[in-house]
Amino acid sequence: MPKSLAKVSKKISRKTGGHLNSLHENSRNSQRLRRASARDDKLAQRLLARTKSHQPLLQRVAFFQDAAREEEASSSSSFVDGGGGGVFSEDKVRELIRGFIVGRDVKGGGAGQGGEGLHKTVSTKVALQEQARGLEEREFETGFWCPDMQDRNNLGKLRAWGGEWSSLATMKFVRIGREGGRVESQFPPR
After folding, report:
1. Distant-in-sequence, close-in-space partners of 131: CB < 8 Å, separation ≥ 6
2. Which ranges constitute the DSSP H helices of the chain?
3. pLDDT at position 43 over 50
4. Is the pLDDT at 158 greater than 80, yes or no?
5. How many CB atoms lie within 10 A of CB 93?
6. Which residue, among 43, 65, 84, 56, has the nearest Cα to 148 in the 3D structure?
7. 173 and which of 19, 46, 151, 185 could share a cystine (Cβ 3.0–4.6 Å)?
8. What's residue 42's pLDDT?
9. Which of 125, 127, 138 is nearest to 97 (CA)?
10. Which among 90, 65, 87 has a CA at the least distance from the CA of 76?
């Protein structure tokens, strides 16, 4: 049965009297230690890859959470009900989506910015930002995935959200198109 490196090393150290360094190079115990170490490394890499893939969606939801908190604090008239406890209108949600996409606008000196650096190559970071913005623009054409800000209960959950990936499963999500249309979606988006 697979065990963590800590458990395997603890068991072997008990067995050998606390001398892990005195193991033979290809003994069973040293092979167990190598396998447990490789297993822990593989799990750590998978966890890192998973959190890295979740990051753009967490940033997206955090953007809408900030917008919901700001609107609640200012009690703006952009709410359908007019008061601070109302929901967002569909036009206001589209405006927020545009703000999110434009907010990810490319920052930094790339090719074609200013008189200097005309022959400057675009950095990898700037190229990735441009690619992400293009993907979001295309997604907005077909339906931009975001929290449902037209549901009062969901808006309350969004404002109280703590930034955890697992707590997003309790919220409702929709896809909103540029030209109109609102379709219920699921979490995680596909």
Report:
1. none
2. 5-16, 28-74, 90-103, 124-142, 152-160
3. yes
4. yes
5. 23
6. 65
7. 185
8. 95
9. 138
10. 87
Residue 67 or residue 109, greater confidence: 67
Q: Under DSSP, is residue 12 helix (H, G, I), strand (E, B) or coil?
A: helix
Q: What is the pLDDT of residue 118?
A: 62
Mean pLDDT, the chain, whole residue set: 81
Query: With bands split at pLDDT 50, 70 and 90, how would you rate the model's confidence at 15?
Result: confident
Q: Which helix (H) or strand (E) holds 115?
A: none
51-95 pLDDT, tens per residue? 898 888 899 899 999 988 888 877 644 555 444 457 888 888 899
Per the CB < 8 A criterion, the answer to whether 7 and 39 are in contact is no
User: CA dist 59 to 26, 30, 80, Å?
Assistant: 47, 43, 26
SS3 147: strand
- CA dihedral 138→155→159→47, nearest 10 degrees, is -50
CA distance readout (Å), 160 to 66, 87, 146, 167, 171: 11, 15, 16, 10, 11
